[in-house]
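ERR on first pass: missing label on line 2. Operator R.T. fixed the label and resubmitted. Corrected input:
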Amino acid sequence: MRRLSALALLLALPILRAEDGMWTFDNLPLKQLKEKYAFEPGKDWIDHVRLSTLTLGGCTGSFVSADGLVLTNHHCTRGSLQRLSTKDRDLVKDGFVAATRDQEIKLPGLTYRTLMAMENVTERVAKAVKPGLGEKAAAAARAKELDAIKAELEKASGLTYDVVNLYQGGETWMYGFKTFKDIRLVAAPEIAVAAFGGDYDNFTYPRHDLDFSMVRVYENGKPYHPAHHLTWSTEGLKMGDLTFVVGHPGRTSRLQTFAQMKYDRDFGIPAYLRNADRTRAILEEYGKRDAEHARQVQTLILGVNNGSKANEGSLAGLKDAEAMKRIEDAEKALKAAVAKDPKLTASTGKSWARIEQATQLQKGLLKEARSVGSARSTTLGQALALVRLAEQQELPVEKRLTEYRSEGGLKVLKTRLSGPAMGMMGQGANPELETLLFTRGLEDAARELGPQHPFVVAILGGKKPADVAKAAVEGTKLNDPAVRKALIEGGKKAVTESGDPMIVLARKLEPILLGLRKKQDDVRAILEEHGARIAKARFAVYGKALPPDATGTLRITYGAVATYPANGTLQQPFTTWAGLYDRHFGWGGNEAKDYTDWRLPQRWLDRMGKLDLRTPLNFSHAVDTTGGNSGSPVVNRKGELVGLLFDGNIEGNAGRYYYDEKVNRSVSVDARAILEALVKIYDAPHLAAELTGK
Amino acid sequence: MRRLSALALLLALPILRAEDGMWTFDNLPLKQLKEKYAFEPGKDWIDHVRLSTLTLGGCTGSFVSADGLVLTNHHCTRGSLQRLSTKDRDLVKDGFVAATRDQEIKLPGLTYRTLMAMENVTERVAKAVKPGLGEKAAAAARAKELDAIKAELEKASGLTYDVVNLYQGGETWMYGFKTFKDIRLVAAPEIAVAAFGGDYDNFTYPRHDLDFSMVRVYENGKPYHPAHHLTWSTEGLKMGDLTFVVGHPGRTSRLQTFAQMKYDRDFGIPAYLRNADRTRAILEEYGKRDAEHARQVQTLILGVNNGSKANEGSLAGLKDAEAMKRIEDAEKALKAAVAKDPKLTASTGKSWARIEQATQLQKGLLKEARSVGSARSTTLGQALALVRLAEQQELPVEKRLTEYRSEGGLKVLKTRLSGPAMGMMGQGANPELETLLFTRGLEDAARELGPQHPFVVAILGGKKPADVAKAAVEGTKLNDPAVRKALIEGGKKAVTESGDPMIVLARKLEPILLGLRKKQDDVRAILEEHGARIAKARFAVYGKALPPDATGTLRITYGAVATYPANGTLQQPFTTWAGLYDRHFGWGGNEAKDYTDWRLPQRWLDRMGKLDLRTPLNFSHAVDTTGGNSGSPVVNRKGELVGLLFDGNIEGNAGRYYYDEKVNRSVSVDARAILEALVKIYDAPHLAAELTGK
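pass 2 clean. output:
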């Protein structure tokens, strides 16, 4: 591929920084590492940290013992802890430590995977597309070749392969995974310590959270013995030390155009925040009914707040005039490079303008996009998915919506739709909460869209929101996975004949939703087509000097333990147990009224004198991470475990759009704190011994 | 005086808030205190806290024992500690505790005063001005009456009386003081603990500073026994508790017009900050010469940084669009009230526009105002003052600059000019530092004004800045107070005949400086005249419902111990010893490289185990204070000492222009920390016993 000269490249890379980047394992920035840190990891080092890492689906974990012990965040297993808790045994509040392996508790429904193999299939797929083929035929040829490669690889290895597109199509890979399904809880601290400071301190450094949990991977009923696991460091970190984070950053939007960032800043994120405010208000309304209700929504509210704070940080980043100037300049530089190349000009010259037009269309659809849907009902969401599945399967493949076209895609959809837990809120099984959310969702839609909007007319049918919600939630049987399975298997006939009130509603709504979806697809098609053209141009100009946007696949990033300026001072690189107690007592201890997020479990007060108060608890480091990196191992030059990533600072939320090494910091639990807590607070020297191999 | 109706008053007071206000002792907001806190202080309570408080000149202190022990901040006595320190005995670095009264060290040059009596003389002065007198004659009559009142009061009481103008002339008072000159050092911690976190943590909460010192007032060679002193509280504070701060807030500019605030925002403060940056750079250049040089400028740099951070906070406040809107609205409300009253319209209707014009003139003079002067030389500053004094005294009174008109004013000037320590920098006695500052000051003036500017031509006389500075500093004798005294007594003849190189320079410069001063006086006259008209209109509309701007006179303010939102979370109301150690160890302890502001003296590490780590160290409270409040006692409802004010948060620096109770917080040392440190760290139970009366 044609590349610019080195000088032109340098001039055209105004936003590229040393620490910037979530790098793929085939393309580590070895030159930068050597030049800046005099560090040259060999193939063994790279393979070792990769093979010790697991994807937990939305989180990351790592093997930390030869007997399959996995370290991740408390907030990565919190959903499981919540589901296994009852009024009498509250694993979230009281924590848990298995004194023996017999006591380890099975966590149902989890799938952990390790990335065992990576194959670059870009050229093979390209070759499969014969010259002169039309667009559709080319796509079909590509898909066929990918299916063939997948089958070959899986047969040869016994692994499960995923197609991975990088650089928005610039490269195509096959990633092969080993899968684990038998996951058991070994240890988790009390939520008061794991999420000390609650929503207030979330994303705020200095931080004092023991946000870890430990599970064990079993295979065939016995602890799994991984070929690779991370050794627990005995040295410990200090300011300036180089760290690496291995994990699965979920999504960044750094390669969006400037117009898209402005859309997010002025419309997209503000709309998200308004919606989150409303969700929180409804959950709080529910929580006020009594203590048990409050307990039920506690983690849901934390989740909503978490999303809001992250988006507020992103929004602040987009409002930073200096950063936006840098982004605009980078775009101008790429545009200039494109303008100098007739071929790139032909393919991409108008792409920025087309995307800007598409954001105008997006803006016009925003209100409907927010209000036309499941009206906050998880069960209605399921019903809508079942109806759509039935409708789409009746259509010829080329007329279907994208996600209904491949057999693989359909299988994933069906599996998800027939599973036990559904929806972000998981409230399907809680009719009282479901009814409240649905009622408020209907009221909001009616207010936002007006009483004459077809969606409002169809869903309310002239009745009151509360009555519609109550009747549907009381009458539905969709919470039973067997009922959903029967509807999936019964196809369009079963769905059409169903008298389930949620399905009845969904049948009425589907044409309206489909109409909106098609308008959105038109916009998305423009954004994707021209986004891909720009991405290809970028790849043509810069190659792999810029890492690809995060896509939830395995990445490695690096940087030093570092302070940063905030709040008028410099933030300390480490916090300690002393800081945990300072913030606890500073709020008035467990007697504090009004503000209770800094309370501590009694044993933490009883055993304060046993702890070495100087022990580092959390640290801040200049590594480029984002959501999905939660639970990532932090390793040192030796590839040893020194920390457990669990958070970023507020400034780091701008990382969705750009990495700012001056202030963007990730926040990790120091490995020394985990070990000390296991021994001195949780009476679990056996786990400490397993971790340290002593 | 004519007042608006209660409703109109309410509508017209958009910026008045409950906690807003530095109230004079004759006008405590008793109604608000009763309504909000159910607290009704009696005359005894009010007199007791007033008579226990001292003004130290720029700081505040309070009597805390029957034997004349005074509590104030470390940074209020730091200048004295620095002056008494030598290479062998570093009172700043090592701290000091007198084991017996014999060991107490006299601090020369200090004057402490207590406000013993307050007389409202507004009406008496008004009566002295007979109807029909011209402006000049009226002013003379007022001055004569004030002199007469002062003489009467002083004769009757033995106190020293000051004229105090409040509400920009709305009220005139006589404040009577008892004066103390024999002040001896009793205790001061190490600066590492008193100013823990150095410049970085200054103005940043959470804070961990033991910023106290103790001195004893002597009279006739014996400890003074004050009629009132504050009792040390045995209860301690908690979140939400009501606190009072008694002290001498120096200056606020809240009653400026909106145009003046915009001038400060866009020109005044930015110019200040540029100048401070330059001063700091020169001091750092000096400090790099070696460790002893660094020691010499350490406190000077802290002072410069302190000023910069405060101004940056003020500037951020002026950039807060919401607050500026509130201020603009308040101005509009007052303008509307003025417009409804023909008499006020006649006097004040055009005043806002006149002030806005004056700020344009100010802008035009800014460059000269910054560069035409003493060129950073303390000694040249003295020489200029001596020359001007001699010139002005030759003129008839009405042609003199304001400060040379009254006999009292002249006396103050002469006393200051013949004292031992001169200038903010106190560097007159350090020829090496003086030479560097002067050289750089001359270079800056030449660069800023250009080589042809009369000031540059006159001061350089074609020579190089370094040569001019070296010759003048080496040749001058003005560091000798006796030389200055002789020049003052010798009048114009002595000054004209003096061959002292600084005086020679000053004679050449005086006409240029005087020309600039006259232009500035013209602007100031407009600002003062129309500022006073607006103030009178405000007093006519609102009366004493709004407290007067701070003027360095004694005030009381109140508010609760409170959290506030910052950095994405809520700030803890208290910090503890645990927090001090957290920040120390979090930075790597005493082994930390690069960042050394969080080091601790060895005895603080050796004795960590002796301290109760839960003890509150600092706290944040919603009281309205500003510079000059440093060292103010914090008292509870019983009038007992619970804390020692030493700082505000960054957000509080906007308090120069407006008080924002959401985020403006003062920061105080908790009285419990002082007591515990005296006993457990400093082995001074005798002082603890004196404070607690045990």
